[in-house]
Amino acid sequence: MGTSVCETPEAAVADIGSGATLAVGGFGLCGIPDALIAAIAERDVSGFEVFSNNCGVDDYGLGILLSAGRIARVTASYVGENKEFARQYLAGELEVELTPQGTLSERLRAGGAGIPAFYTPAGVGTPISDGGLPWRYAPDGSVAVASPPKEVREFGGRRYVLEEGIVADYALVHAAVGDTEGNLVFEKSALNFNPLAAMAGRVTIAQVEKLVEPGELDPAQVHLPGVFVQRIVHTGAQDKRIEKRTVRREVAA
Known about the structure:
- This protein is α/β, with parallel strands linked by helices.
- It contains seven helices and 14 strands.
- The strands form three sheets. Strands 1, 2, 3, 4, 5, 11, 12, 13 and 14 form a nine-stranded mixed β-sheet that branches. It has a three-stranded antiparallel β-sheet with strand order 6-10-9. The chain has a two-stranded antiparallel ribbon with strand order 7-8.
């Protein structure tokens, strides 16, 4: 199956239904598929399970779906910039699986490569491997669902924990440039998780700032080949949001 060029973000996500699993690219607010997320938010669908490094901020990115109560479960490595995320999690409204950042990236890559599971030293001897992490709280503050213990084996005298690969129904990613055959080029920090999320999707949808014809991209510059991309939509330049602005204090003369 080749790559289809969609006219609008709304057309690109039109078949995403309630309860779908979504692998979503981006790093902080860099390279998030904001137009695709906004298009989903306009539809009457909910109950999503999301795999993403983080969950946006309260009014942008995945935070839009979160604030609207559309997300049921999140697997992420960092969620510290979203107050609504913390509120829903502590109130028992949201199930959350926190995982080491490198482990999350490898779980996405493994799923895309057809690898069902792998061993890693990250998290051995912690609640990551031993279990007991609160996935969901009850309204009274007790733990309603806790993470189960994972298999640990020893290789070469060192202990490793078994982690499962991630395969999602859909992947949503943002690229700086793409061609009509789905080949994508990412920019700077957007390169961190977008290619991995794209690999993990059974159907991968890419929004691109610039859409070009086949042959216009230097093959050596392509970060993700079009074989992983089923739909592509030209959305133009992205709104460049800053997750946390830090400035130096003014020094008196």
